[in-house]
Structure formats: structure tokens, C-alpha cells
Amino acid sequence: MVRYYILFENYEQGLALHDLLDEAGVRNRIAPAPAAARGKLCCGMSLLVEEAELAAAKACIAAHGAVYYDIVGMENQLQPRRDRYC
Amino acid sequence: MIYLDNAATTMHKPQAVIDAVAAAMSTFGNASRGAHEGALTTSRVIYRTRAKLAAFFGCPKSEQVIFTCNATEALNIALTGLFHAGDHVISTELEHNSVLRPLYRIREEQGVSLDFVPADKKGCVDYADFERLIRPETRAIVCTHASNLTGNRLDIGRIGKIAEAHGLLFVVDASQTAGAARIDMEEMKISVLCFTGHKSMMGPQGTGGLCIRGDVPIRSFKVGGSGVQSFLTVQPPEYPTHLEAGTLNGHGIAGLSAAVDFIQSVGRDTIEKKETALMMRFYRGVSEVPGVTVYGDFSTEDRSPIVSLNMWDLDSAMAADELAQTYGIATRAGAHCAPLMHRALGTEEQGAVRFSFNWFNTEEEVDEAVSAVREIAEWARP
């Protein structure tokens, strides 16, 4: 399943959009920016949104002129139903 | 101890500040490093503190609030990062060495020329001198909001208008006023505001910062870890990252955040009125004492809560020592890192004894200090 990472140039930009998305009721969570999303950003925070929320997230960004670096879609590399030995 | 050295640092802090620092010490990860809860807790506090400070100082963009370890570091960042060879900067004789030494350094190392607006025997300036000293290559006016020696305040709104009218940057050292005096960067046309967290803000030592209004590029003062854009070979260009390298003082910033909350809950105006009343009570008490010379302009109460004085020709260090040893009163003697101001006042040799007041001082403490000055002045009579 593809998940979308909103990338930023710094934490201030990310936390600002996190607040905006929360206020707009767009489900998102802070996650480490994946190393595979190279460019000049290979560490720091990102906002993770599911595909179903992507359009709402983009609308929120546009409505507020929020600053971000990029949005990248990535396949979840972990098997969510993997055996956790529990 | 009766603590009257608040212009150096406020020793008594709001309990909420102490609690915030203590809580942070056991819960904070490293801000901007990772996305786990420990790191995010710190990132959120720092992020919200930037927003609080931006609102508090009228800085339009919270990401342009840069954290430093004190006002001196903020001033070093601003003054070494703003100018180029051939630029001319106007400052004043009221300045602390935290302004003067960076200015002298950029004069030596960057080829920047300087002029200083003179102060009179009361430590006052003539505002026409700012305009008089402007020349084609003038790039900025750099000045304190209030003298750390006399407490005299400069009308930074008036100076800001002069700067704007001539297209100059306006850099303000708010070390003695941030937290207690009203500051609005937008209204006062301040380009860069440098502040400390541990004086009138009543926050922890090791906190401070600079607020940048508008598009003012400042070269990086230090470079290094930022938690973002790790493969860039230079410091990332965006504020605040551009001017913040290395781990921030998250614990201190948590305390600073609580300090802003405290000031706003009490009311900045309320704090300023009480501090002014204590200062004027002390001033009225000591100015009548034979042999006491008070420095500064007390024709207005629009000043910072500082009273500097001498008693006859008594060495200021001996006076301060007597105040501490016999009366348990903490003051500050000597030159106060303000060499040009002492020269203007004619106190280079004797120095001065500085009494400075804060929200947590009381009228009873002020009255004890007046009595102590009266007794010492009597003994020191030639």
C-alpha cells in the first residue's frame, strides 16, 4: 500500500503544517522522513498521510499557502500483519 | 539577601519556570532529531515558544525567531553576518560591550566603519545626531533599547522611523528591556531584535535569541548539525536552521516559554509599573542623601528600573562590598561593560554602584537599601 510522505526543509515547516492538518481534521502523523526520499532531504521529520487523505491534505496546504518541500509516495516496506512473535 | 542586581540577571524566577525546566530535564529528547515522542516533545515546545516570542515582540514570522544562548551571541550573529566591506554603521555611546566589541571586530576584520551618537552628562542622546551621522554608505543603526548603566531608554520607535526613512537596517539590543518594556518590531521598524531570556524575561540563563523582521539575510555564524538536509555541504539556507547549528538549549527554552506565559498572565504593563515604582521609590530616597550622585535621566519614568550612583568619592567596589557584607544587599559595582557610557558620565575612575529592580522585589527591600546608602554615605563623608 502506498503511503504519502510530506517532506520539509526543517521542523518548523513540518510542525506548522501538522497543526494545520490537525485543525482541518486531516489524519496525519509525524514520522521520520524516509531515507529513500533523497534529494537534499535525507533526515528530519515528515508528515505521513494515507492515500485517502492526500487530496484533503493538498487542499489544506493550498488553502493556507503552507510551506513544504515535496510529497512522495512510497510503498510500505513492512508487512503490517507480520509475525510479531506475540 | 536583598537581590538588587537584576540588570545582570534576575535571580528569583517564577516557580512555573523552575518547574518547566525540571520537567524538561526528564522528558526531552533532541529537537529536530528524529520523529519519536521524545524528540517531538522538544520540537513542539521549541516550535510553540518561537510562536509565543514572535507574537510577544511583534515579529511577523515565527520561523524567523532564532534561539541563541544569550543576547551577546544574538548580537554577534547579527553584527558579523549583516555587513560587508565599505558599509557604515551608526551606534551610540550607551552601548554595552556585547554591541561594542562585535562592532569593533567587524571594523577590524570586515572593513566596516563606525560612528557613535554621543551621550551627554545625563546619558541622553540628541536624536538629530542619528540623521546627522548618516552618509551614503550607511547601512544600519545599531543601538540598545536601554542603557544597562543608567537605565535611560532610547525612543526606538523614533529611531526606527529614521532608519526606515533612509532605507537602513535597524538592529536593537533589548537586553535590558525584553519582557518588561513594550516592543513591537513591526510598529517600531526593527529589522533585528536581540534579546536575552534571563533578565527581565525571568527565564533561565543560557537562553536568548534574535528576531528577524522581513527579508534580512544574515550569514551563518556557526555551522554544523541541523537534523535536516544532512547531505548539504553548507548550512541550510532557511531560517531558523540557517542560524541554529547544534543542539538547542531545549531545557532552557522550556523555561523561557513558561516565563513568557508568566509575564502574560501577570501582565507586562503590570510588571513594568511595579518595577518603575520600586525604582522611583529608591531614586527619591537616595537622591536627597548628602554626597550621593545619581546618574541618568529621571525626568521621565519611561526608563528601565536601574539606579546607578556614587557616594562622595568612595570607590564603587568598596561601596558594593559594604552593601553586600554588612547589609546583605547585592548590587553591581565597576564599569558594567559599558566603557563609552562611563566616559560620558565621567565615572571611568570611580565606576558606579548599580541598583536594579525586578517584579519580585518589595518596597521593604527598597527602603532597606535606601537606609544602607544613607548610612554608608554618612561614613564615607570626607
Q: Regarding CATH, which class of chain A?
A: Alpha Beta
Topology, number of strands of chain A? 4
Query: What is the CATH T-level topology of chain A?
Result: Alpha-Beta Plaits
How many distinct domains of chain A? 1
As a percent range, the share of helical residues of chain B equals: 25-40%
CATH superfamily of the largest domain in chain B: Type I PLP-dependent aspartate aminotransferase-like (Major domain)
* Pair of chains with the largest interface and how many residues each contributes: A-B, 20 and 22 residues
The percentage helix of chain A is 25-40%
- CA distance, first residue to last residue of chain B: 29 Å
Gyration radius from CA atoms of chain B, angstroms = 21 Å
Order of helices and strands of chain B: EHHEHEHEHEHEHEEHHEEHEHEH
At the fold tier of CATH, the topology name of the largest domain in chain B is Aspartate Aminotransferase, domain 2
The average pLDDT score of chain A comes to 85
Strand content of chain A: 25-35%
Tell me, rounded to a whole number, the average pLDDT of chain B.
Answer: 96
Order of helices and strands of chain A: EHEEHE
Q: What count of domains describes the coordinates of chain B?
A: 2
Short description:
The complex is a heterodimer of chains A (86) and B (382). Chain A has 86 residues and is of the alpha+beta class.
Give short descriptive properties of this protein.
A: alpha+beta, Alpha-Beta Plaits, 4-stranded antiparallel beta sheet, 2 helices, 31% helix, globular, B: 382 residues, alpha/beta, Aspartate Aminotransferase, domain 1, Aspartate Aminotransferase, domain 2, 2 domains, 7-stranded mixed beta sheet
Task: Summarize the structure in words.
The complex is a heterodimer of chains A (86) and B (382). Chain A has one domain (2-75): 2-Layer Sandwich (Alpha-Beta Plaits). Helices cover 31% and strands 26% of the residues of chain A. Chain A has helices spanning 11-23, 51-64, and strands spanning 2-7, 29-32, 45-50, 70-75. A four-stranded antiparallel β-sheet of chain A has the order 2-3-1-4. The longest helix of chain A has 14 residues, at 51-64. The model of chain A has no long low-confidence stretch (mean pLDDT 85). By secondary structure, chain B is α/β, with parallel strands linked by helices. Chain B folds into two domains: 2-10 and 267-379, Alpha-Beta Complex (Aspartate Aminotransferase, domain 1); 15-266, 3-Layer(aba) Sandwich (Aspartate Aminotransferase, domain 2). In chain B, the strands form three sheets. In chain B, strands 2-8-7-6-5-3-4 form a seven-stranded mixed β-sheet, sandwiched between helices. In chain B, helix 2 (37-57) crosses helix 8 (250-266) and helix 10 (316-327) packs across helix 12 (363-379). Chain B is globular and about 70 Å long. Classes of the chains: A alpha+beta (86), B alpha/beta (382). At the A-B interface, helix 1 and strand 2 of A face helix 2 of B.
